Amino acid sequence: MKKLVSVRHIALFLCMLLFSALIVVTAPQTTLAVGTIYYVDSAGGSDSNNGTGTSTPWKTLTKVNSVTFAPGDQLLFKSGGMWTGQLASMGSGTSGSPIVIGSYGTGNKPILDGAGAVSSVIYLKNQQYWEISGLEITNNAAAEGTRRGIFVYADNAGTLNHIYLNNLYIHDVLGDNSFTGNGKGTGGIYFYVYRDTSKSISQVTQTKFNDVRIENNTITRVGRTGISMLTDWQKNEFKYWSSGVAVRNNNLSYIAGDGMIIIGADQPVMEYNVISNANYVCGPNAANYGGNGWAVGMFPFFSEGTKMQFNEVYSTRSTQDGQAFDVDGNNNNAVVQYNYSHDNEGGFALNMVDNYAKGSRTTNTTIRYNISQNDRNRVFTISNVSNVKVYNNTVYVGSALDTTIFWHKAAGTGTDASGNTVPVPAVDNIAYNNNLIYNHGSGGYTVNNGTNVSFANNWYYGNHPSTEPSETGKSGRLSDPKLVNAGSGGTGIDLVNRGNNLPGYKLQSSSPLINAGIQVAGVSYTGLKDFWGGDALYGTNPDIGAFEYQGAPTGGGSGNLALNKTATADSSCNTTSEVAGSAVDGDTLTKWCSHGTGGAYWWKVDLGANNSISQFVLTHAGRENSSWITKDYNIQTSTDNTNWTTVVTVTNNTTNVVTHTITPTTARYVKLNVITPTSSTNTSARIYEFEVR
């Protein structure tokens, strides 16, 4: 279990770049008020220059650090240049006129190298409205120490706004890799709000950050933490938390400890990040990045409403924690959703209390629509928390693993703030619903601990250890779930455009999981999505697992004869993603689209052999636009691809998913002829899925 010592160090910094006429410059994310543009060239500059032109640039960080910048100013380092030391620029921007640090010219990112001799390569203290982007930052050394790439520090300053860190390459920062020392405050990017504990609250100014964006950065080989935001104002008696915090689209690898930490934030978002080999100190080949475990891919602490979503986390090391995601102490209303977790030595998700005996609480956690593939140790670790919903997750455990699926910490005792021994309960009020457990491993379950623990409508396939939870109707939920290709997830998944990714975890049209779930109590399905972005409720009941099948199921019959068969068409609107085969791929989020050829629209599938056919299920384009549902069409069959028989004729159709039942006929080829593609002025034909059975 992870314990956090008093939090000091909060990381913030988001960056951006800048745009200047006649010069190649990284572009800012906001519209800048006019200010002075300063240029720095490590090879051709001079500190005696005025710095305001590419022909008169400054040279050193010493010169830069002597200047107090004004709102709207831009500080641009020449691409391909290199500077050693610390950048500690002075001044603050204003709303609409941030100070921007970026680059100019062409070539590699400018390099700022602390050479292990400075605690932070870039340092901001009690400053706001800064945007930093397009730089390479490193701060390596032979021995561990208090080192960071970027340090944003706040002390007795009120609310500090608008720190953007964007498109930075931060690497080889050897910090303090200890768990109990300064480790969480060293590494790549660090935000810290300090409070002088020797003074009463009335003697200091409550301080926090607002509008922090840490985006599109690559951080590798840093210790101990990739990105961290800490505050001394996190405790419940203060609860003066940062707001508007977004950490997204970052790629972190080989982090000595935790990949990302957010402490003391209201509604923070951690999304679209890829984290690999966090807690690397505990694995082999650690080199100089040695330390002592208890780390995860990402976690919040003392925060409200955190969302961890659309992330891929894999190969987190160690079973001292070692999970991809952790909802840690004193979190309320956290949501872990739409993530892909795989091959993490500690498991997928940890939900815990830091120190229950001293008043720490974690409540109302939701874990839903995630995919866990071959995570080790324990997929779910639940400890001393209350009110947890775990639903519609897909868990795959391969045959070589002994992973425990669900694990609940037992009740025990602890020491309170006065030194008294007090009871610490096990988990209370946790519900597991609609989860798919695809278990070929040899591990079991530890779920006897806790009160008000319930299991309903989960699907268990593969091995069935004696500790597997019992639940009503379970005997009917043990068969093959008929995933497209379980265990085929892979690495480096694009979760921004996830609609066509991880197809192996979608359901075949004949899957028994379709409509087999229950609507989870207290959950609003309005606007709720499944892992791939489809509606989470299609019909009366949701499906089981992370995928919600959007078409009509084929049930236990012969199945979809057209699934993944060869399809052709008159044309395609997009020859990459809207081809004929997209209508028979089992995915109702992909489509065939045609503009027509010579006024004709047709689509055809070769079933590979003559089959007895009695039904067609067509999914039209109503989920995009109801007026795009195919209006007039017919369906033909053939045994030889030459002589055709019309078996279905439709006019004035307004239904999105249509089932056509016919007198059984023998055919190898099925053809759709679109007469009128839509009921609007749009002239493209669209079919999301064409099923034959």
What does this structure look like?
This protein has one helix and 48 strands. α1 links the parallel β1 and β2. The longest helix has 5 residues. The N terminus is likely disordered.
Write out key terms for the chains shown:
single chain, 693 residues, mainly beta, Jelly Rolls, 3 domains, 15-stranded parallel β-sheet, 13-stranded parallel β-sheet, 1 helix, 48 strands, globular, disordered N terminus
Task: Name the average pLDDT.
Answer: 90
Which oligomeric state applies? single chain
Largest sheet: 15 strands, parallel
How many domains is the backbone divided into? 3
Q: Which descriptor suits the 3D outline? A: globular
What is the helix tally? 1
Tally of strands: 48
CA gyration radius, whole angstroms: 29 Å
Strand content: 35-45%
Helix-strand category: mainly beta
Give the low-confidence spans.
1-32, 287-291
Distance between the termini: 52 Å
Roughly what percent helix?
Answer: under 10%
How is the secondary structure organized here?
Layout: E1 37-40, H1 61-65, E2 74-78, E3 82-84, E4 99-104, E5 111-113, E6 120-125, E7 130-133, E8 136-139, E9 148-155, E10 159-166, E11 169-174, E12 187-194, E13 208-215, E14 218-223, E15 225-231, E16 242-248, E17 251-255, E18 260-263, E19 265-266, E20 269-271, E21 274-276, E22 298-301, E23 307-309, E24 312-314, E25 323-327, E26 335-337, E27 340-342, E28 347-351, E29 363-368, E30 371-373, E31 378-382, E32 386-391, E33 394-397, E34 404-408, E35 412-415, E36 421-424, E37 428-433, E38 436-439, E39 451-456, E40 459-462, E41 566-569, E42 592-594, E43 601-619, E44 632-638, E45 645-650, E46 657-676, E47 685-687, E48 689-692
Parallel strand pairs: 1-2, 2-4, 3-5, 4-7, 5-8, 6-9, 7-10, 8-11, 9-12, 10-13, 11-14, 12-15, 13-16, 14-17, 15-18, 16-19, 16-20, 17-21, 18-22, 20-23, 21-24, 23-26, 24-27, 25-28, 26-29, 27-30, 28-31, 29-32, 30-33, 31-34, 32-37, 33-38, 37-39, 38-40
Antiparallel strand pairs: 35-36, 41-43, 42-47, 43-46, 43-48, 44-45, 44-46
